[in-house]
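Dear Dr. H.,

I hope your travels went smoothly. While you were away I took the liberty of generating a structure for the chain from your last submission, since the lab meeting agenda had it listed for discussion. I wanted you to have the full record in hand beforehand rather than looking at slides cold. The sequence, exactly as received, is reproduced here:
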Amino acid sequence: MANVGVRKTGDWAKARKLLRDAAARLQHAQKVALLQEAQVLRNDIVRGLTAQGAGGASFAPLSPLTLAARRLKGLGGTKALIARADLRNAIAALSRGDEVFVGVPRKAKGPGGGALVDVAQIQEYGAGPTAIPLTPKMQRFLFVLLREAGVAPSAGSGAGTGYVLVRVPARPFLQPPFDAFSKVAPERYARRVAGLMGWGG
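The corresponding predicted structure, in token form, is as follows:
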């Protein structure tokens, strides 16, 4: 078997530099495309809150007592989850290394200092029924609330029993947009990367 000689020709240093540059450009394009997709998902979640439903499902309407409590606090509106828009405004798209986070950050706080991530979890999955012992002050407020709502005290209200039952219905505002997003995001992400790299088509 005869030996075959191989001779390299051309500017190999330039070729290596082009490959290194292409890898860096691809990494940058992937990061930019990922952030763009994260922002799309964040906007979808915000739109779902504003429209009072996401993924084809509507939120459960607010109870008369919740609406009355809003009026007594000087808050208007009848939309669920956005009395002051704290939860909606807390939704963020954050870069974390090679990943992005979309949702309510653990550090997000409401006006009273409470963690909004806890509020988000309760609203997403629902909670209760929970029996809350009534103090005399709370009981007076409950009767005012019932009167404001035009609701007569009933056996289920707890108004005369020393406790009140609280139930929060599930109002999923994160999972439906995530599910819809996951169906179209991979192909759209690939198109974004290709566009940023100038691969045409």
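Two observations you may find useful: Residues 13-126+169-197 form one domain. Strands lie at 53-54, 57-58, 92-96, 99-103, 127-133, 163-168.

With kind regards,
E. W.
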